[in-house]
Amino acid sequence: MVIDPVTLIVALIGASTPILLAAIGELVVERSGVLNLGVEGMMIIGAVSGFIIAVNSGSPWLGFVGGAFGGAVLSLIFAILTQYLLSNQVATGLALTLFGLGLAALMGEAYAGISPPMTPDLFPEAMRDIPALGPILFGHDLIVYVSLALVAAVWFMLAHTRAGLILRAVGESHEAAHALGYKVVRIRVLAILFGGACAGLGGAYLSLVRVPSWTEGMTAGAGWIALALVVFASWKPWRALLGAYLFGGIAALQLRLQAADINIPVVLLDMSPYLVTIIVLVLISSDKTRAALNAPAALGKVFHASG
Amino acid sequence: MKKLTSLMAGAALALGLGAAASAQDDSFQVGFVYVGPIGDYGWTWTHDQGRLAVEETYGDAVETVYTESVPEGADAERVMTQMILNGADMIFTTSFGYMEATNNVAARFPDVRFEHATGYRRDHDNVSTYSARFYEGRAVMGHIAGHMTESNIVGYIASYPIPEVIRGINSAYLHAAEVNPDVEFRVVWVYTWFDPAVEADAAQALVDAGADVVLQHTDSTAPMTVLAEADAFGFGQASDMLQFAPAPRLSSIMDQWGDYYVRRVGEAMEGNWAQADTWEGIGDGMVGIGEMTETIPEEVRASAAALRDSIASGAYHPFTGPINRQDGSVWLAEGETPEDGPLAGMDFYVEGIEGEIPN
What we know:
The structure holds two protein chains of two kinds.
Chain A: H1 5-31, H2 39-57, H3 60-84, H4 89-107, H5 125-128, H6 133-138, H7 142-160, H8 162-172, H9 174-179, H10 184-210, H11 222-232, H12 237-259, H13 266-286, H14 288-294
Chain B: H1 10-14, E1 28-33, H2 43-58, E2 62-67, H3 74-85, E3 90-93, H4 99-108, E4 113-117, E5 127-132, H5 134-148, E6 153-158, H6 163-179, E7 184-189, H7 196-208, E8 213-216, H8 222-230, E9 233-238, E10 249-255, H9 258-270, E11 277-280, E12 287-289, H10 298-312, E13 323-324, E14 330-332, H11 340-344
Parallel strand pairs in B: 1-2, 1-3, 3-4, 4-5, 5-11, 6-7, 6-8, 8-9, 9-10
Antiparallel strand pairs in B: 10-12, 13-14
Helix pairs in contact in B: 2-9, 3-4, 5-6, 5-10, 7-8
């Protein structure tokens, strides 16, 4: 019994998309110097609001929009508390997660056990039927391609545009950016909203495509993995993609190795995604100067214009 | 009723953020510690149905509190202690992984009665354990699975390698192999009771490996949605999961805790509660077999019902020899049935199951 690499890769891409979406959003937030630990909360709000809207409207696309919107609305609370009321970002982020989990459970009470409308595949059947390449390249829904486009767009924005330069400046030294006349708070609020929308979209992908149904607490820690992924990626978009696919790939592979009755200790397989993450983190951070240089210098620091 | 509804992320719990309820000592207070959310429509949901049965039976004389999604380990101790400090007289801890925590807290509060589900340690006089003979239900599911599989590959989503799960796999396999000697079991250990995404991935991996019937020993309905998409079959787990009938859900193995909870709370209120180790099955009503849908051929429905009834009446034990261990050594001789002790501690596969049990 061997493992079919094509279904493995297809499964890996599907499994990785929610955490990739959440991670790329959080990456932008952290690049602007804000640490939002509420990713899990925003994801689950996105999952439930996307699910509710998709079920009631019959359209998965409205559901995805609704999920992104729901995540953004929740992140707005975080933005107001941390940017205008200057609350502690770590505590506010944790509270946001708790609030999001509770609120989602309440919102979704009537929706357990319902099936959402199907999300269609993007490409016609003929293209998906191309041996091997078809399922891998064309066998997905729109959101998978959106997530890849987002990675490319975020990379381009950060590396090659003036807006990206300003965002990074705010994240490295909000005092200097402020002195130059940039609206630090406004830029950060926009980044937080973007992060919330991405997390919400990731959550909606979970409840509309990956599982697909609403269950209380269904994110089950995906938001925390996304947060870890940002550090793993050392705040670089393409590395976040690599990290998400690596994590999702190993998780999908280990289940398949078990299903195929291949004799590898299961405990080893189960911890392999985390093990590989740790190994890569150690390798990255062994180059001390580079890892330290990559973390936004103003990450998690409160900014007030008077300072 | 006072709800102690707090959905706690593990991380937040680790930071010691807990929820509190006000103390109230005029009525008998019963606390429930849940491993997942009530909304899982699986394991935790069935325990909450039991809690509601207690409330309905005793009305104002009893007050229940519960906490959902409590991680197994030290956090559970904190939750239990909090409940007791708020006035709980009796505590139900509804997952195997609370075994250590339950006994630790029981040592500190000898006047509080503890009921630990699916465990085997009763270190102190105030700790009872209880469980259902799920393997009786698994026998019926295995019987149906053996008939329904066309690829002769049956998938099994297993949570943790503990005796209860291993016993279920063995029971299902024996009764699938009895009606279909070519059947092969593929077991995937996911190391979680509740994680819909991982459960769905596991179901997908099993389907990709050729399984067309998948049994699950995890709590969410996520595998069902995958099976529906793949035109494969599955069984309701813990709760009926009737929303997935007539397919992929063929039948279900239901946990019915209400009678037991009502009985034990009643005993505790009257002061004649005593330590016990309870293990009840289909016959006592603790394990229920959900409606078998018409997707199952009529004669299979009939034979499955006959199997269920013979187990319920005690005429047939799902582990009746001859049964060999995986390595070929004899476990039960012809016609022999196991004592409850060795059965409760079962830590090996029976002959015919491939793969190794992780430890």
